[in-house]
Amino acid sequence: MVNLLHSSQYIKEQSFPFWIRRYFHDHEHVPQLHGHDFVELVYVVRGVAQHVFAGSHYELRAGDVFIINPGEAHTYSIEPGQEIEIINCLFMPDLIQSSWLLDLGISQSMDYFYVHPFLDKRERFHRRLNLNGQDAVRTLFLLETLMQEFESRQSGCETLIRLQMVELLIMLSRAYGQAEGGNGKTTVRSQSKQLLVRRICGYLERYYDKKVTIPDLCELFNISPRQLNRIFKETAGMSVVNMIHQIRIERAKHLLLETDEKVITIAGRVGYEDPAFFSRLFQRQVGCSPGKYRESS
Fold first, then answer.
1. 286 burial class (0-12, 13-18, 19+ CB within 10 angstroms)?
2. For residue 53, what are the contacts with CB-CB under 8 A and spacing of at least 6?
3. CA distance 282 to 93
4. 69/40 Cα distance (integer angstroms)
Protein backbone atom coordinates (compact mmCIF):
# COMPACT_ATOMS: atom_id res chain seq x y z
CA MET A 1 0.00 0.00 0.00
CA VAL A 2 1.40 3.38 -1.03
CA ASN A 3 1.13 6.22 1.49
CA LEU A 4 0.33 9.42 -0.41
CA LEU A 5 1.93 12.53 1.09
CA HIS A 6 0.65 16.00 0.31
CA SER A 7 2.76 19.16 0.18
CA SER A 8 0.51 20.79 2.81
CA GLN A 9 1.89 18.33 5.40
CA TYR A 10 5.31 19.96 5.13
CA ILE A 11 4.98 23.22 3.22
CA LYS A 12 2.92 25.65 5.25
CA GLU A 13 3.39 28.71 3.02
CA GLN A 14 2.25 28.10 -0.56
CA SER A 15 3.93 31.33 -1.62
CA PHE A 16 7.23 29.74 -0.61
CA PRO A 17 6.96 26.01 -1.46
CA PHE A 18 10.13 24.69 0.19
CA TRP A 19 11.07 22.41 3.10
CA ILE A 20 14.34 20.74 4.17
CA ARG A 21 15.41 18.43 6.99
CA ARG A 22 18.09 15.90 8.01
CA TYR A 23 16.97 12.30 8.74
CA PHE A 24 18.56 9.22 10.33
CA HIS A 25 17.10 5.82 9.39
CA ASP A 26 17.97 2.33 10.63
CA HIS A 27 16.51 -1.15 10.18
CA GLU A 28 13.64 -0.49 12.59
CA HIS A 29 12.88 3.07 11.49
CA VAL A 30 12.31 3.36 7.75
CA PRO A 31 9.47 5.23 6.04
CA GLN A 32 6.73 3.14 4.48
CA LEU A 33 6.35 3.07 0.70
CA HIS A 34 5.13 6.54 -0.19
CA GLY A 35 4.48 8.95 -3.04
CA HIS A 36 3.93 12.69 -3.01
CA ASP A 37 2.85 15.71 -5.02
CA PHE A 38 6.15 17.58 -4.58
CA VAL A 39 9.70 17.18 -5.87
CA GLU A 40 12.06 15.43 -3.44
CA LEU A 41 15.82 15.83 -3.68
CA VAL A 42 17.76 13.36 -1.50
CA TYR A 43 21.45 13.49 -0.57
CA VAL A 44 23.08 10.57 1.28
CA VAL A 45 25.44 11.99 3.89
CA ARG A 46 26.70 8.65 5.23
CA GLY A 47 25.78 4.99 5.63
CA VAL A 48 24.56 2.29 3.25
CA ALA A 49 21.07 1.13 2.32
CA GLN A 50 18.95 0.11 -0.61
CA HIS A 51 16.60 2.47 -2.39
CA VAL A 52 13.31 0.71 -3.17
CA PHE A 53 11.90 2.29 -6.31
CA ALA A 54 9.40 1.01 -8.90
CA GLY A 55 9.64 -2.53 -7.54
CA SER A 56 13.44 -2.72 -7.71
CA HIS A 57 16.26 -2.27 -5.18
CA TYR A 58 19.24 0.00 -5.82
CA GLU A 59 22.35 0.29 -3.65
CA LEU A 60 22.87 3.61 -1.87
CA ARG A 61 26.09 4.95 -0.40
CA ALA A 62 27.53 8.24 0.85
CA GLY A 63 27.60 10.90 -1.85
CA ASP A 64 24.58 9.60 -3.77
CA VAL A 65 22.08 12.24 -4.81
CA PHE A 66 18.78 11.67 -6.60
CA ILE A 67 15.47 13.32 -7.39
CA ILE A 68 12.03 11.75 -6.94
CA ASN A 69 9.31 13.18 -9.16
CA PRO A 70 5.75 13.88 -8.02
CA GLY A 71 3.68 10.70 -8.25
CA GLU A 72 6.61 8.27 -7.90
CA ALA A 73 6.62 5.82 -4.97
CA HIS A 74 9.76 4.88 -3.05
CA THR A 75 11.22 3.89 0.33
CA TYR A 76 14.41 2.37 1.79
CA SER A 77 15.57 -1.07 2.89
CA ILE A 78 18.24 -1.18 5.60
CA GLU A 79 20.01 -4.26 6.95
CA PRO A 80 20.11 -4.87 10.74
CA GLY A 81 23.06 -3.03 12.28
CA GLN A 82 23.22 -0.53 9.40
CA GLU A 83 21.93 3.03 9.25
CA ILE A 84 21.75 5.86 6.78
CA GLU A 85 21.84 9.64 7.18
CA ILE A 86 20.14 11.67 4.47
CA ILE A 87 19.11 15.24 3.80
CA ASN A 88 15.62 15.60 2.34
CA CYS A 89 14.85 18.72 0.33
CA LEU A 90 11.20 19.06 -0.68
CA PHE A 91 9.89 21.73 -3.01
CA MET A 92 7.32 22.49 -5.68
CA PRO A 93 8.59 23.17 -9.21
CA ASP A 94 7.42 26.79 -9.13
CA LEU A 95 9.88 27.53 -6.30
CA ILE A 96 12.25 28.48 -9.12
CA GLN A 97 10.38 30.59 -11.64
CA SER A 98 11.23 30.27 -15.33
CA SER A 99 11.51 34.06 -15.50
CA TRP A 100 14.31 33.88 -12.92
CA LEU A 101 16.29 31.42 -15.00
CA LEU A 102 15.71 33.48 -18.12
CA ASP A 103 16.82 36.73 -16.48
CA LEU A 104 19.91 35.02 -15.06
CA GLY A 105 20.71 33.48 -18.44
CA ILE A 106 20.85 29.93 -17.03
CA SER A 107 17.69 28.32 -18.37
CA GLN A 108 19.74 25.58 -20.03
CA SER A 109 22.17 24.88 -17.19
CA MET A 110 19.99 22.55 -15.14
CA ASP A 111 20.04 19.22 -16.99
CA TYR A 112 20.15 17.22 -13.75
CA PHE A 113 16.83 18.82 -12.80
CA TYR A 114 15.17 18.65 -16.23
CA VAL A 115 16.77 15.59 -17.86
CA HIS A 116 17.99 12.95 -15.41
CA PRO A 117 14.76 12.54 -13.36
CA PHE A 118 12.85 11.79 -16.58
CA LEU A 119 15.10 9.06 -17.94
CA ASP A 120 13.95 5.45 -17.92
CA LYS A 121 13.63 4.38 -14.26
CA ARG A 122 16.30 1.67 -14.40
CA GLU A 123 18.60 3.95 -16.34
CA ARG A 124 18.19 6.67 -13.71
CA PHE A 125 19.32 4.59 -10.77
CA HIS A 126 21.92 2.43 -12.45
CA ARG A 127 23.51 5.66 -13.64
CA ARG A 128 22.99 7.50 -10.39
CA LEU A 129 24.98 10.60 -9.56
CA ASN A 130 27.57 9.88 -6.86
CA LEU A 131 29.59 12.84 -5.61
CA ASN A 132 33.02 12.70 -4.04
CA GLY A 133 35.86 15.06 -3.20
CA GLN A 134 35.11 18.78 -3.51
CA ASP A 135 31.75 18.16 -5.22
CA ALA A 136 30.53 16.21 -2.18
CA VAL A 137 31.92 18.79 0.26
CA ARG A 138 30.32 21.69 -1.62
CA THR A 139 26.95 19.94 -1.96
CA LEU A 140 26.80 19.12 1.75
CA PHE A 141 27.81 22.72 2.57
CA LEU A 142 25.04 24.12 0.36
CA LEU A 143 22.42 21.80 1.84
CA GLU A 144 23.44 22.64 5.40
CA THR A 145 23.37 26.35 4.51
CA LEU A 146 19.85 25.87 3.12
CA MET A 147 18.80 24.19 6.39
CA GLN A 148 20.22 27.05 8.43
CA GLU A 149 18.42 29.66 6.31
CA PHE A 150 15.17 27.70 6.42
CA GLU A 151 15.29 27.32 10.20
CA SER A 152 16.37 30.89 10.94
CA ARG A 153 13.65 32.55 8.83
CA GLN A 154 15.61 35.79 8.87
CA SER A 155 14.85 38.67 6.55
CA GLY A 156 15.62 37.77 2.94
CA CYS A 157 15.87 34.03 3.62
CA GLU A 158 13.39 33.12 0.87
CA THR A 159 15.43 34.93 -1.78
CA LEU A 160 18.67 33.37 -0.54
CA ILE A 161 17.14 29.88 -0.53
CA ARG A 162 15.93 30.28 -4.10
CA LEU A 163 19.36 31.47 -5.23
CA GLN A 164 21.13 28.67 -3.34
CA MET A 165 18.78 26.10 -4.89
CA VAL A 166 19.66 27.39 -8.36
CA GLU A 167 23.35 27.16 -7.45
CA LEU A 168 22.88 23.61 -6.15
CA LEU A 169 21.01 22.43 -9.25
CA ILE A 170 23.56 23.99 -11.61
CA MET A 171 26.39 22.37 -9.68
CA LEU A 172 24.67 18.97 -9.78
CA SER A 173 24.01 19.42 -13.50
CA ARG A 174 27.69 20.12 -14.09
CA ALA A 175 28.67 16.98 -12.16
CA TYR A 176 26.01 15.01 -14.05
CA GLY A 177 27.38 16.22 -17.39
CA GLN A 178 30.92 15.25 -16.40
CA ALA A 179 29.78 11.83 -15.16
CA GLU A 180 28.07 11.24 -18.52
CA GLY A 181 31.34 11.97 -20.28
CA GLY A 182 30.30 15.41 -21.48
CA ASN A 183 32.04 18.71 -21.07
CA GLY A 184 29.40 20.21 -18.78
CA LYS A 185 28.34 22.83 -21.33
CA THR A 186 24.63 23.03 -21.97
CA THR A 187 24.03 25.42 -24.88
CA VAL A 188 21.62 24.31 -27.61
CA ARG A 189 24.33 24.44 -30.28
CA SER A 190 26.69 22.12 -28.42
CA GLN A 191 24.11 19.44 -27.54
CA SER A 192 22.24 16.88 -29.60
CA LYS A 193 18.63 17.22 -30.71
CA GLN A 194 17.72 14.40 -28.36
CA LEU A 195 19.11 16.25 -25.35
CA LEU A 196 17.19 19.39 -26.28
CA VAL A 197 13.95 17.40 -26.53
CA ARG A 198 14.71 15.73 -23.18
CA ARG A 199 15.22 19.14 -21.59
CA ILE A 200 11.94 20.42 -22.95
CA CYS A 201 10.04 17.25 -21.98
CA GLY A 202 11.51 17.51 -18.48
CA TYR A 203 10.31 21.10 -18.30
CA LEU A 204 6.83 20.11 -19.53
CA GLU A 205 6.67 17.29 -16.95
CA ARG A 206 7.52 19.74 -14.18
CA TYR A 207 4.92 22.31 -15.29
CA TYR A 208 2.21 20.09 -16.77
CA ASP A 209 -0.50 21.98 -14.84
CA LYS A 210 0.61 25.43 -16.02
CA LYS A 211 -0.17 27.29 -19.22
CA VAL A 212 2.95 26.68 -21.33
CA THR A 213 3.05 28.24 -24.81
CA ILE A 214 5.35 27.68 -27.77
CA PRO A 215 6.72 31.26 -27.46
CA ASP A 216 7.48 30.57 -23.77
CA LEU A 217 9.51 27.47 -24.66
CA CYS A 218 11.28 29.21 -27.54
CA GLU A 219 12.37 32.06 -25.30
CA LEU A 220 13.40 29.79 -22.44
CA PHE A 221 15.38 27.34 -24.59
CA ASN A 222 16.67 29.89 -27.12
CA ILE A 223 15.18 28.31 -30.24
CA SER A 224 12.82 29.46 -33.02
CA PRO A 225 9.28 28.05 -33.29
CA ARG A 226 10.13 26.48 -36.63
CA GLN A 227 13.23 24.75 -35.24
CA LEU A 228 11.37 23.64 -32.12
CA ASN A 229 8.55 21.94 -34.02
CA ARG A 230 10.90 20.36 -36.58
CA ILE A 231 13.30 18.95 -33.98
CA PHE A 232 10.44 17.74 -31.79
CA LYS A 233 8.70 15.89 -34.62
CA GLU A 234 11.99 14.37 -35.80
CA THR A 235 13.03 13.20 -32.33
CA ALA A 236 9.79 12.57 -30.43
CA GLY A 237 7.55 11.74 -33.37
CA MET A 238 4.92 14.29 -32.34
CA SER A 239 4.39 18.02 -31.95
CA VAL A 240 5.10 19.92 -28.75
CA VAL A 241 1.37 20.47 -28.21
CA ASN A 242 0.66 16.75 -28.53
CA MET A 243 3.44 16.03 -26.04
CA ILE A 244 1.85 18.44 -23.56
CA HIS A 245 -1.49 16.65 -23.95
CA GLN A 246 0.16 13.24 -23.55
CA ILE A 247 1.94 14.28 -20.34
CA ARG A 248 -1.25 15.77 -18.89
CA ILE A 249 -3.38 12.74 -19.74
CA GLU A 250 -0.82 10.39 -18.15
CA ARG A 251 -0.90 12.51 -14.99
CA ALA A 252 -4.71 12.51 -15.06
CA LYS A 253 -4.71 8.70 -15.25
CA HIS A 254 -2.64 8.57 -12.05
CA LEU A 255 -4.98 11.00 -10.29
CA LEU A 256 -8.04 9.02 -11.37
CA LEU A 257 -6.59 5.88 -9.79
CA GLU A 258 -4.95 7.42 -6.71
CA THR A 259 -7.65 9.90 -5.60
CA ASP A 260 -11.43 10.16 -5.29
CA GLU A 261 -11.50 13.64 -6.82
CA LYS A 262 -14.18 14.48 -9.36
CA VAL A 263 -13.27 14.47 -13.05
CA ILE A 264 -13.87 18.22 -13.24
CA THR A 265 -11.35 18.76 -10.43
CA ILE A 266 -8.75 16.51 -12.05
CA ALA A 267 -9.19 18.34 -15.36
CA GLY A 268 -8.23 21.59 -13.61
CA ARG A 269 -5.33 19.97 -11.77
CA VAL A 270 -3.71 18.85 -15.02
CA GLY A 271 -4.12 22.20 -16.75
CA TYR A 272 -7.49 22.08 -18.53
CA GLU A 273 -9.99 24.84 -17.78
CA ASP A 274 -12.65 23.19 -19.95
CA PRO A 275 -13.70 19.79 -18.46
CA ALA A 276 -15.59 18.86 -21.65
CA PHE A 277 -12.46 19.33 -23.77
CA PHE A 278 -10.48 17.28 -21.25
CA SER A 279 -13.00 14.43 -21.40
CA ARG A 280 -12.99 14.41 -25.23
CA LEU A 281 -9.19 14.42 -25.32
CA PHE A 282 -9.01 11.65 -22.72
CA GLN A 283 -11.49 9.54 -24.71
CA ARG A 284 -9.45 10.05 -27.89
CA GLN A 285 -6.09 9.17 -26.31
CA VAL A 286 -7.12 6.42 -23.86
CA GLY A 287 -10.10 4.92 -25.65
CA CYS A 288 -12.64 5.48 -22.89
CA SER A 289 -13.99 8.31 -20.74
CA PRO A 290 -12.23 9.33 -17.49
CA GLY A 291 -15.09 7.82 -15.48
CA LYS A 292 -14.94 4.49 -17.33
CA TYR A 293 -11.16 4.40 -16.91
CA ARG A 294 -11.51 4.79 -13.14
CA GLU A 295 -14.19 2.10 -12.95
CA SER A 296 -12.33 -0.43 -15.12
CA SER A 297 -9.10 0.00 -13.19
1. middle
2. 68, 72, 73, 74, 121, 125
3. 25
4. 7
DSSP-assigned states of every residue in 116-174: GGGS-HHHHHHT-EE--HHHHHHHHHHHHHHHHHHHH--TTHHHHHHHHHHHHHHHHHH
What is the Cβ-side half-sphere exposure of residue 120, based on CA atoms within 13 angstroms? 4
Cross-strand pairs, 41 = 67, 89
For 202, the 3-state DSSP assignment is helix
Backbone angles phi, psi at 224, to 5 degrees: -80, 155
Within 208-286, strands assigned E span: none
Residue-wise pLDDT for 73-129, tens only, equals 899 999 999 999 999 999 998 898 877 777 777 766 788 888 888 887 777 887 789
Q: What are phi and psi of 85, to 5 degrees?
A: -115, 125
* Residue among 3, 44, 49 nearest 22 (CA): 44
Cα gap 158→164, rounded to integer Å: 10
Answer yes or no: are the C-beta atoms of 68 and 54 closer than 8 Å. no
The pTM of the whole model exceeds 0.85: no
Q: Give the containing element (helix H, strand E) for 292.
A: helix 290-296
- Gyration radius from the chain CA atoms: 20
